Amino acid sequence: MKRISKKILILFAGVTLLLVSTIVFARSGTAGVTTWGLMHEVRMQAIQQLITSKFDRFVTMPFGPGNDHMHVTWSLTYPDYPDYLVTTGIDLQDDLDILLEKKIQTLESERPFYTSLASYSLNNIILSDDEIASLQKVYLFKSAEDLKDLGYVVSSYRTRINNDAKWRQDNISISYWNIGNVRVLNPDQKISFMDEIHYDPAVNNWKRDTVNGLALMWGVSSVKWGGICGAARGINAVLLSNKAFEIEQRYNHTRTYKNMYQNEINGQEFRIPWIDVAVYRMWSSQKDFVFKNIREYPVVLVMNYDGSVGWMEELFVLSHEEDRGILKYIGHQGNCYTREANSVPFTSCYAAVSGR
User: Fold this and answer.
1) Rounded (to 5) percent helix, strand, coil in the chain
2) Do residues 189 and 320 both lie within one domain?
3) Shared-domain flag, residues 113 and 7
């Protein structure tokens, strides 16, 4: 009887030691520091510190220009701020991942093996100024869960059905591609539409496509102007109902068409003029579309457009709940049309307005 009890006691002790060792190893070893739950929590804490520290080297997901793997789901059916979808890039490491893994390993190595689990604290993972300065590439987020934990929501969106001619499709697609399709704007960061779309092929050593379409200028067929106004118009529409942006330069066309686009902005349809934006550079004159992020945190501009006829052009902004705004049509006198964006009135006047 004593022998059986002794065997049971030894067996129990062995199982207990195995369980304790497994738990401690999971939190203290390399396998533990790379588990999603722990790294996600540590990473979110570090991202918040970087935002507070005015870190300005955020990039979006591991997407290069031209990728558009983030969408508002069912935005035509459920227009009241639907969920967003992030599809790839969760497992790719950036400079912050590498730094955090090293810090956790160092912290764990300095603690006794059997007490590290009890005394472990995420509050010890604080980045120094030198460590922040060493970070060159940090993804603002890698998944929808990241954005939600950081307090981001779909704060505005605009969509329409594509019915453009081929040359306009190409220019809109190339414009969004060159801006980045998914683009982080850091606090106080300003974007010049004409600089970003690489209108001049000599910029960037001919490494990007150049917008190049067909349009009528004073009755003469020309190139490089057609379609880019449509791209600027799309961005303008999504910014109007978002309080995170200040528009510094914006011009409307001399002539406009009421039925040129069928827009849905935050679920409300707009066909009446004034949302258009005129952009061009020609000799010594230019019209640009310039806007900036006026918040204390980064915001994300998403531009999805694949150019297919009948497909959906979709633009939206990821920022905070309080950035959601309202766009209202006030009325018009003659060819001057007034709307109110976030309680601020804007009026655009045209020499001629055509269409129904």
Assistant:
1) 35, 25, 40
2) yes
3) yes
**Do 176 and 135 fall within a single domain?**
no
Residues 159, 306 within the same domain = yes
Token pair listed for 260? 């040129």
Give the chain's domain count: 2
Predicted pLDDT of residue 164: 77
Q: What's the pTM?
A: 0.78
DSSP letters, 181-220, are SEEEE-TT-EEEHHHHTT-STTGGGG-S-----EEEETTE
Give the whole-angstrom CA distance, residue 168 versus residue 164: 6
Q: Same structural domain for residues 124 and 157?
A: no
Place of tokens 């993972």: 125
Identify whether 148 is part of a domain. no
Q: Cβ(35)–Cβ(275) under 8 Å? A: no
Distance CA 120, CA 230 (A): 54
Q: How much is the pLDDT for 212?
A: 55
At residue 12, the 3 state secondary structure works out as helix
Residues 212 and 350 in one domain: yes
Residue 146 lies in a domain: no
Same-domain check for residues 128 and 175:
no
pLDDT of residue 115: 44
- pLDDT tens readout for residues 133-191: 999 989 998 887 888 899 998 888 888 877 777 777 877 887 888 788 888 999 999 99
pLDDT tens per residue across span 37-69:
777 888 999 999 999 999 999 987 655 555 556
Both tokens assigned to 55: 């870190």
Per-residue confidence (pLDDT) for residue 167, from 0 to 100: 73
Domain that includes residue 54, residue range: 2-58+90-140
Q: Is 130 helix (H, G, I), strand (E, B) or coil?
A: helix
Tens-place pLDDT, residues 203-236: 555 455 556 544 444 444 444 445 788 889 889 9
Q: 224 and 109 share a domain?
A: no
Domain boundary among 107, 140, 173: 140
